[in-house]
Amino acid sequence: MDKNNNEISPEDSDSNFDDKDLVKKPPIPYPKSVIFIIGNEFCERFSFYGMRTILILYLMNRLSYGENSATMAFHVFAMACYFTPLAGAVLADSFLGKYWTILIISCLYVAGSIVIALSSISGSTLFSMLGLALIAIGTGGIKPCVAAFGGDQFIRGQEQQLQRFFSFFYIAINSGSLISTFLTPILREDVGCLGRSDCYPLAFGIPAILMIVSLAFFVIGRFWYGYRVVPPQKQNVILTVGKCVYHALTGKFSSMAPKREHWLDHADLYHNHQTILEVKTLMRILFLYISLPIFWALFDQQSSRWTLQAIRLNGDFGFYTIKPDQIQVINPILIVAFIPFFENVIYPIFNRIGLNKPLRRMVIGGIFASLSFAACGILQTQIEKELPPTMAKGTNHLMLITENSKIMNMSIFDEFNSNIEFEQNPLKIYASIPRVKLNDKFIVPYDKNITLKNDKTLVIYLEKNNQSPLIFVMDNVLSKPIGSGAQMFTIFNLKNFHNETFSSTDTNDDVIIDSIIQNFTINTIGKLKTFEIEVKGKSSSMSVGEARSNYKLGQGTAYVQLITGDMEHADKINFQLIQLIESNKISVLWQIIQYVLITAAEIMFSVTGLEFSYSQAPKSMKSVIQAAWLLNVTIGNLLVAIIADVQLFPKQSMEFFFFAILMLVDIIIFAVQAYFYVPYQGKNTTQHYDSEPFDDNANGHRSRVWSMVSAEGELPKLNPVILDENEYDHNATWTSGSRM
User: Fold this and answer.
1) What would the mean pLDDT of 280-299 be, rounded to a whole number?
2) How confident is the model at residue 283 (pLDDT cuts 50, 70, 90)?
3) Strand, helix or coil at 42?
4) Which GO terms describe its biological process (predicted)?
């Protein structure tokens, strides 16, 4: 009898007690090979984000792209990075398997990293684009494979170890991103190499080395401990969905097709009822995805338009200068800080007021994304107020320079007096004078060989020993430098000049003579090519021969440098620096507001959206959801590339406000879509569509889908933390090495 006084038959006794039950099962050994997978992911993310952080400035400063062209090229690259995962997923699931897909495509990734590092030495556009293409194939091809391959190393009974693995995996992603985003701008700007004050070969070279180490980690893991390898499926689910949709459409538009309740029912000749039902569910989710690309169009501009905005802001704090591309480090820092804050503070508040539902959180996230670009647009309007006047077509600036004289006796226009007074400096500038007047007053009477073009400045230089002025042309002197440094326009008037070398510290441009305006036996007057000096929080120096002068320059300003004296007396050479436009006054720290808003939007929109999609999709369709999610990112980057190429807006602030309004309209449309969304009620899914995303297994266990966000605002193929029978592949094999 048992403790409840019920009789127990011998048969019952034999069935309830087994010698095997008395033996405690040994613990399943932890798959130590995942240490190498985590190391692989850290190095790869370091490599990718290190390269991506400095890419927009490389395109401008080294390949001489304009702001719009660089933005377009950057987002075409980003678009490719999120399109190629489709090919990687098909290769891994249907042909090569995850292991060989990661190994082969990582080799292309390494090749691309090396190519762009080497091409940055000479600034080759062709090889730079080749390197970026290989990197896009590499990072995209392995993106859907690495996290899933790490999950394959665990078997049933290791649910807690799997959850810890994903925690460490995403810590590796965020730490790799954070460190590289902070470090590579320092390598780019603060280290000089190959005769330049910056060092793109080093800034690209370190990520290339990390990518080599990443590949080495992955290979060593196979031979040291061995990997559990799940063979590829015979049929890829993405291809199955594509065939189902194709057969449904061809059947629907066939002249012999009978009426069906749903257009996908026309595929029933080729696919079973369960497959069609799951594809219907997938289509409902994809209908919600129509509005998602706009969010990614905004989000990925952190590394392009926002970095270009930082160029026009002041990052000099005396003890340290924040680089324009370095400010991006705020995003991964905020991600790490915001995740526990939202889980423990924000979401409980949302729960009390009825907002803690996935689709509602996504709507709020979209509103925050819109607000981030509104804040960005407001900041840009303040920047534009400080910009110098734009030179209109058909006009040119006029710059008057005189030596040792407070009055220039010259009639410029009929309405001006003939005597022009110079007060504190020997220079005056008149902006946007009609070119016809300049030709009539100066070029025709003095030098008919001079030709004025757009974006040029006519210079009238009156030397103290010369009664007639010298006339020559320089670049637009009232223009901001391309980078965040200081632009230098140099005129020299030197006695006993014998082609001594001009040089400057902290510049990547050639400091060479552009033209000799007047060459006498004793005096030589000329000008140098315009060059930019990087402002690094310290003094920069200018020299000619043995003469040298030190300057403390401001970010984003322009100067005219007058060098006069006798080269036989180097200590008496005079370097006079005259500031033409104001330096950047607005602190780069104002960008923190927009970064806070976009990071909050990322957590509520991106993370919640992918979790919701996984909770609603049938298990067989989760890889299709991954592909569709990444395709949204692709379309968003394509939109930015098109807008940058077309140049719809005369001011950058107008473009930022356009995206803010576009996101607001888009999220309203999404809210309407969400209202009419029909939830999936599959045989294994009991939760309501607007509840927290959980997975329920056959044994009634419930596990929350792991929700740590990566630094890139996306989640690879998610795995529930309960491994049921369907998720355990009995055909998995082990590569070389031993499981310890």
Assistant:
1) 90
2) confident
3) helix
4) oligopeptide transport; protein transport
132 contacts: CB under 8 Å, gap ≥ 6: 55, 77, 112, 116
At 527 the pLDDT is 93
Domain of 139, CATH number, reads: 1.20.1250.20
Q: For the chain, what percentages of helix, strand and coil (3-state, to nearest 5) are there?
A: 50, 15, 35
Determine the average pLDDT of the residues in 553-568.
Answer: 92
- Tens of pLDDT, residue by residue over 585-642, are 999 999 999 999 999 999 999 888 877 877 777 777 776 777 788 889 999 999 999 9
Q: Take residue 128 and report the two structure tokens written for it.
A: 């730079």
75, 214: one domain: yes
Q: What is d(CA 95, CA 100) in angstroms, rounded to the nearest whole number?
A: 10
Query: Beta strand pairing status for 540-544 and 502-504?
Result: antiparallel
In terms of Cβ atoms closer than 10 Å to its own Cβ (0-12, 13-18, 19+), residue 204 is buried
What does the buried/exposed string (b/e) look like for 71-96 if buried means 16 or more CB atoms within 10 Å of the residue's CB?
bbbbbbbbbbbbbbbbebbbbbbbeb
User: Is residue 279 in a domain?
Assistant: yes
Element (H, E) at 518: strand 513-519
Q: CA gyration radius for the chain?
A: 33
Lowest mean pLDDT among 197-201, 249-253, 655-659: 249-253
Q: What percent of the chain lies above the pLDDT cut of 70?
A: 83
> Are 141 and 179 found together in one domain?
yes
Q: Taking a C-beta distance cutoff of 8 angstroms, is the pair 573, 567 a contact?
A: yes
How many helices and strands in the chain, by DSSP H and E? 23, 19
Residue 327 covered by a domain: yes
Name the DSSP letter for residue 27.
P
> Is residue 58 included in any domain, yes or no?
yes
Q: Where in the sequence is the domain holding 187, given as residue range(s)?
A: 29-233
| Residues 198-229 pLDDT 10s | 899 999 999 999 999 999 999 999 888 889 88
Per-residue pLDDT tens over the stretch 426-471: 888 888 989 988 888 777 666 667 888 889 999 988 877 666 778 8
Q: Single out the residue of 702, 721, 688, 681 nearest to residue 278, CA to CA.
A: 681
The model's pTM: 0.85
Query: What are the Cα distances from residue 656, in Å, to 79, 306, 664?
Result: 20, 10, 13
Half-sphere exposure (Cβ direction) of 75: Cα atoms closer than 13 Å: 27
- Claim to verify: residue 437 and residue 372 sit in the same structural domain: no
Inside any domain, residue 245: no
The contacts of residue 226 (CB under 8 Å, 6+ apart) are 33, 734, 735, 736, 737, 738, 739
336: left (phi over 0), alpha (psi -120 to 50) or beta: alpha
DSSP 370-381: HHHHHHHHHHHH
3-state SS class at 74: helix
Query: Does pLDDT of 294 surpass 90?
Result: yes
- Domains of the chain: total: 3
Cα 381 to the chain's mean position, in Å? 23
* C-alpha distances out from residue 418 to 411, 413, 494, 706, Å: 4, 9, 29, 79
pLDDT at 371 over 50: yes
Confidence of residue 706 (pLDDT cuts 50, 70, 90): very low
